[in-house]
Amino acid sequence: MKKIVIGIVLFIIISGSAFFFVRNSDGSEIAKSDKQVENELIISMKETKVEKEKIEKLLTNSSKELKDNGFGEVGLSYSNEERILTAQVNDKDFLDDNKAQIENIIINTAKEVGFNDFKIEFWIDDRNIAQNKEDNELMESLDKVSRAVSDVLKEKGYNNLSYSLSGISKNEIIIKGIDKDIVGDDELATHISNAILSETNTNYTVKLKKKSESEIRDMEWQPILTAIKEETNKKFDEYRGFAYSFNPLPLEIIIKTNINKSWFKSSGEKVKEIENYVERIIELKIEELSIKEIPYEIIIRDKNNKKIN
């Protein structure tokens, strides 16, 4: 089902509902159901936001506690879909000696931030110690670069500038923003370069560019795509994955399910329910973010990856 997202989508929904009231005796019940779905989604997305904040605190605070206790080499990551926190260590002997203590630090930190219902798994990095050290140093350097760029942009009044960094490994940094005023600002580029030099003791050439229309579109839609992935995963047991593609338009939003249409008698109803749920997420996020119009298509796939809507 292909759609064109437009800024007055809520007006269309309201008008359509009013028409539905006239033509159907049970229209009020359907409208009420739609409103309930919307209210549930709003609550769910607020809960998701709160949980993300807790996860960020868990990872940040756990990393600090691990470092303070001599386990600074332990890396942490979290999978939202699987609700698994992964602790990366360098070798098996280290894990055998310290697993219980590392787990306790993470569990206690989770209690402090009010986060629960997750699993802890350990992953042993099989690369050599020198490579791991080099990777850690690179990550620390990138973090310093990012903070230096952010500080300078804020100092110059670009408080809401969305930007991305690239080319850092070549001692060249390309900063792409949505504000055309930064393009060709040699003074700003020099200021950023000096700030990075002060932080990292490395001299970078800084280039300022404006994001292309497609890059801006992709960036603007990321919060919507993330919300679709998170909320459908929370809502439907049938959910098994998510994908999307901007090229070529229309944007394809793909929901992968474990539905087997050959034996699931009510699969058609479930497919429609999922599709409507995704549409409602899109509508709510478009209204929230004021995203410009873009064609999109929602695709629901069964357990064999066959399109079923």
TrEMBL record:
This is DUF4030 domain-containing protein. It comes from the Bacteria.
